[in-house]
């Protein structure tokens, strides 16, 4: 007599938002809202403490935030499975990632408000030259290092895609990190800050184009035009924002003269 067995991954049930409290016998860490509050408080305490410790070294606060993320993540404290499953369980990462992306969107929106497009047009040539110089040397160094590391990668990896990936990885600019540093140093509204932000934006656009090329060269099971469609969709979003959202914002600014 034979029996058929079906094996598969069992999905964990979604977390409820709030608990009835400790006195009702509930563990607050099993619910989304209390756990998110604990995670945010833990991140703030660790990053602020590191910022205080790094202040004599005159390091920007974003460095403390990066180091704090490494300490709280799987590279340091996350190696303790009890801590990882209690404070940062996999089922809670969706909420935490959503909050992080919302914060990043709001921060970049505030950083964009500080930029003046008219002043950026006057320095277009210098911005382009800085962006080209900023991406060329790291990209060349990335390709050079990929030849050294080529013996360590798995067999069957597309060499061309690997070269482009390494070049992009070393040449791309962390735009949010740069904006955070300039804002903390109060350089975001200066001519140097505007030029740096504009050059970083041009740098990121070029890097994403090269990344799309690397995805197309990797030859995965998907269509090689997927990355092209993603890039064209992003361009369409930018054009749509300029043609529709920008006039709406100008109209709103005219209605609020004060």
UniProtKB/TrEMBL annotation:
The chain crosses the membrane at residues 31-50, 62-78, 98-115, 127-149, 161-183, 195-216, 228-249. It comes from the Eukaryota. The keyword Ion transport applies. It holds the Pfam family Na_H_Exchanger. It comes from Trifolium medium. Belongs to the monovalent cation:proton antiporter 2 (CPA2) transporter (TC 2.A.37) family. CHX (TC 2.A.37.4) subfamily. GO terms for molecular function: antiporter activity. Residues 50-254 form the Cation/H+ exchanger transmembrane domain. Its main location: membrane. One of its GO terms (biological process) is potassium ion transport. It is a multi-pass membrane protein. GO terms for cellular component: endomembrane system; membrane. It is found in: Membrane. This is Cation/H(+) antiporter 18-like. Keywords: Ion transport, Membrane, Potassium, Potassium transport, Transmembrane, Transmembrane helix, Transport.
């Amino acid at each position: 007599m034979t029996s058929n067995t079906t094996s598969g991954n069992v999905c964990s049930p979604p977390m409820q938002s709030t608990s009835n409290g400790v006195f009702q016998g509930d563990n607050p860490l099993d619910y989304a809202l209390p756990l998110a509050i604990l995670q945010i408080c833990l991140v703030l305490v660790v990053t602020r403490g590191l910022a205080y410790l790094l202040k004599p070294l005159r390091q920007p606060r974003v460095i403390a935030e990066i180091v704090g993320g490494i300490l709280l993540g799987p590279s340091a404290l996350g190696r303790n499975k009890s801590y990882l499953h209690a404070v940062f369980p996999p089922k809670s990462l969706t909420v935490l990632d959503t909050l992080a992306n919302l914060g990043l969107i709001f921060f970049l929106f505030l950083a964009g408000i500080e930029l003046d497009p008219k002043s950026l047009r006057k320095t277009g040539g210098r911005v382009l030259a800085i962006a080209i110089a900023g991406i060329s040397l790291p990209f060349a160094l990335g390709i050079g290092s990929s030849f050294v590391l080529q013996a360590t990668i798995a067999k069957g990896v597309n060499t061309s895609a690997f070269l482009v990936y390494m070049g992009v990885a070393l040449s791309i600019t962390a735009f949010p990190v740069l904006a955070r540093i300039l804002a903390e140093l109060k350089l975001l509204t200066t001519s140097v800050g505007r030029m740096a932000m504009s050059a970083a934006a041009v740098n990121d656009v070029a890097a994403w184009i090269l990344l799309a090329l690397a995805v197309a060269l990797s030859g995965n099971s998907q269509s090689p035009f997927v990355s092209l469609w993603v890039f064209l969709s992003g361009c369409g979003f930018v054009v749509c924002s300029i043609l529709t959202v920008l006039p709406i914002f100008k109209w709103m600014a005219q209605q609020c003269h004060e």
